[in-house]
Amino acid sequence: MPDDISFDENIKLSTAELIGNTPLFQLAKTRIGSRLLLKLEQFNPTGSCKVRMARSMILAAERSGMLRPGGHIVEPTSGNTGSGIALVAIERGYKFTAIVDNHASRDKLRAMKAMGAELIYVQGQGGEPSTIERRRIAAELAKSTGAFWPDQHHNPDNNRGYDGLARELLTDVPGGLDYLVGAVGTGGTLCGTTNELRRLGQRTITIGVEPTGSIIFGGSGGPYLQTGAGAPNGFTVGPNVDHSLLDEEIKVNDINAFTTARVVGRRTGLLIGGTSGAAVYVALHRLLTVGPGTTIVVLVCDAGEKYLDTIYDDDWLQHRALMCEKNHDRIDKLYQSCQSSQRAADQSETEGLMLT
């Protein structure tokens, strides 16, 4: 080893140290310099952004005395929050019980079980997630056993868990973000990140995206297959969804969400989840309308590898009438239209350099 080069070990001693500092990837850039960036939260341990807020809620509970050494945690979850809690529970010595249903990705359920979580299944009705019933059972279990229920929909430490994500964005994009696009769900990821960006002086325009059929933006509910976002009829939306932080609220149906995720996978090799597909769908359309030099960031909340037997499975899609080649071609052309103008500009610049 050369004497004039020094090396410091960069070895993490706990899984929690791996949380955060996820990469930004440029998905598209137009001729006028506007770009669409993906904040790839699947590079967190557990493959999701939700591990950030799981750790935030548990550490806050420890500080307040609501969670004591050797304690028991119970939480209703569609999977990603549960995986995050399971990881933190391992490191800090807690028992964890997840209240789940079969609306969730099977791989998310398997992951929680692999990390030692106890799973209690609740049956949903009419193709909707059993959000209300899962909460009821969690409340009963917490009351009867004395377990700590973080209650991600109402816990402000959910939103606070994304302060670091906002600071990472500003570190990686010093010029600031013009648009932030993401799924809403419990409100923590998108509203928490937006709140911290604005506290730091950013006037980022935030676009919340929800499945068609979710009642979070109002209206009557209906069935949807995007997991990790949305709320069914009868659900009371918690205060972590702060509509004052959402400049625009847009619903995207399952077929556009899932097809966009598949197009991203085919074009880049990056597999993203269905709700992230919905957010990218909105962002691609917006990219074609914004002015020069605009930066749009999509929060990619989790990894598409969790959905290989659903949204990336042709038979699963066809059985649910969600497989449509014309729709795939339409969205693929949308993606190409965001890229082709930049490629043409790059080619022109290269030819100019060759001529000189």
What is the gyration radius calculated from CA atoms?
A: 21 Å
DSSP summary, beta strand count: 9
CATH topology-level name of the largest domain: Rossmann fold
| Percent helix | 40-55%
Quick synopsis:
The protein is built from eleven helices and nine strands. It has 356 residues and is an alpha/beta fold.
Map the helices and strands.
Layout: E1 24-29, E2 35-40, H1 50-64, E3 72-76, H2 80-92, E4 95-100, H3 106-114, E5 118-121, H4 131-145, H5 156-160, H6 163-172, E6 179-183, H7 188-199, E7 205-211, E8 248-252, H8 254-268, H9 274-287, E9 295-300, H10 314-319, H11 325-355
Parallel strand pairs: 2-9, 3-4, 4-5, 6-7, 6-9, 7-8
Antiparallel strand pairs: 1-2
Helix pairs in contact: 1-2, 2-3, 6-7, 8-9, 8-11, 9-11
Description of the structure:
This protein is an alpha/beta fold and 356 residues long. The protein has helices spanning 50-64, 80-92, 106-114, 131-145, 156-160, 163-172, 188-199, 254-268, 274-287, 314-319, 325-355, and strands at 24-29, 35-40, 72-76, 95-100, 118-121, 179-183, 205-211, 248-252, 295-300. The strands form 2 sheets. It has a 6-stranded mixed sheet with strand order 1-2-9-6-7-8, sandwiched between helices. Strands 3-4-5 form a 3-stranded parallel sheet, sandwiched between helices. Helix 7 links the parallel strand 6 (179-183) and strand 7 (205-211). The chain is globular, with a radius of gyration of 21 Å. Residues 342-356 have low confidence and may be disordered.
